[in-house]
Design a protein that fits this description.
Strand order of the largest sheet of chain B: 5-6-7-10-13
Structural class of chain A: alpha+beta
CATH topology of chain A: Translation Initiation Factor IF3
Largest interface: A-B, 18 and 15 residues
Strand order of the largest sheet of chain A: 1-2-4-3
Shape of chain A: globular
CATH superfamily of the largest domain in chain B: Sulfite Reductase Hemoprotein, domain 1
CATH architecture of chain A: 2-Layer Sandwich
Number of helices of chain B: 9
Shape of chain B: globular
Number of strands of chain A: 4
Strand content of chain B: 15-25%
CATH superfamily of chain A: TusA-like domain
Oligomer: heterodimer
Order of helices and strands of chain A: EHEHEE
Radius of gyration of chain A: 11 Å
Chain lengths: 81, 286
């Protein structure tokens, strides 16, 4: 897959569940349909759960990259208004 | 008037410290009560009791301070609202369940449907001792299935479909057992590590996993005077009829070999774990 260009980024490594999901969701709310949000998240529970929560909210999860420093970058395309 | 407490207990009437007062246990399956049932119970506890109910550890309700002389009237009032007394004593108790996949995004199975089926098949069956079934939807184990004589946990066997996969890597991290690796565009699943939890399938953004529903069944759980965690014999049961066969086999083993007021685990220990395992495996393979 070609490199994904994010329209906006959000760092949720400074919060814990369930605020991780809430912070990502608030950031997505700011975007228009079809725009891409890049979410920086921690290993462990956030990386296990946040991608799934995004899917359950109806958004399109595109890619999860390992930043190599214990954090990950999740790319999500906003679906719906 | 001579009171047969054993008969009352069988009918869900639990003797209280206060003479001639009983806590009436209500038959609740899978923790599910309708509005009409709740309204009926509210009326009965206000009219005949002390205007409160007790929530039991196994998802039932008990209405305390029911009087012996009111028993028939209470039963009639409850029946009008679709409420039945439960049971106590040496027989199959109510089947408990989490909410399951009718509402919960984590659940792999319809726990309520299965609880109703099990309840219909076994509820109140007379046995040498008590016997409890519990059903939970997934490995989050909200229902604590291993506390039950037979505990049923929803699970999934997954198959990866290469043509649908976008190599996003979400499933690799969703897996808590590190059973999934992504290399050169291909997913491989280490089945020795897979616990059939289904988290990969539920997290996959493009539904590149096909899920086959199944069950992880534990036997011999206890959580009273003695504590024992129910043990799994068959790692994953995919077939619903086979699930019922192993449940039948477990309850029959208890019926055949138990002493009065026994529990399945004590019965297994006395008769031999190998013998019990063999009977479960024979039922599974039949």
């Amino acid at each position: 897959m070609a490199d994904i260009k994010a329209d906006e980024t959000v760092d949720i490594t400074d919060v814990v569940c369930p605020v991780t999901f809430v912070k990502a969701k608030v950031a997505l709310d700011e975007l228009d349909e079809g725009q891409i949000l890049s979410i920086k998240l921690n290993d462990g529970e956030p990386v296990q759960n946040v991608p799934r929560s995004m899917k359950e909210e109806g958004h399109k999860v595109l890619k999860l990259d390992d930043n190599g420093d214990g954090t990950y970058q999740l790319y999500v395309e906003k679906v719906g208004e | 008037m001579e009171v047969d407490y054993a008969v009352l207990k069988k009918g869900g009437w639990m003797r209280q410290k206060q003479k001639n007062n009983f806590a009436l246990r209500i038959h609740v399956v899978g923790g599910h009560l309708t509005g009409e049932q709740m309204a009926t119970i509210a009326e009965v506890c206000e009219k005949y009791g002390h205007d409160y109910v007790h929530l039991t550890a196994r998802q039932s309700l008990e209405i305390p301070f029911m009087k012996l002389e009111d028993i028939d009237a209470i039963k009639a009032d409850l029946a009008k609202g679709g409420v039945e007394p439960s049971v106590c004593g040496p027989r199959v108790r109510t089947t408990t369940a989490c909410q399951g996949n009718r509402t919960c995004p984590s659940a792999c199975i319809d726990t309520y449907g299965l609880a109703l089926e099990i309840d219909k098949r076994y509820f109140a069956r007379e046995l040498p001792g008590k016997f409890k079934f519990g059903v939970t939807g997934c490995q989050n184990n909200c229902l604590k299935t291993e506390e039950n004589d037979v505990g049923i946990k929803g699970a999934e066997r997954v198959e990866w479909q290469e043509d649908k996969c976008i190599n996003c890597g979400v499933c690799v991290k969703a897996c808590r057992e590190e059973a999934i690796t992504l290399k050169d565009g291909k997913i491989s699943i280490n089945m020795d590590k897979c616990t059939y939890c289904g988290r990969c399938e539920k997290a996959c953004p493009v539904d590149a996993y096909v899920a086959h529903e199944g069950y992880i069944v534990s036997f011999g759980g206890l959580f009273g005077n003695h504590i024992h965690r129910g043990e799994v014999i068959i790692p994953f049961i995919e077939d619903h009829d086979k699930l019922i066969k192993v449940c039948d086999a477990a309850i029959q083993f208890f019926d055949d070999h138990a002493k009065p007021n026994d529990r399945l685990q004590f019965c297994i220990e006395r008769e031999g774990e190998d013998k019990f395992k063999q009977e479960i495996l024979d039922a599974y393979n039949s």
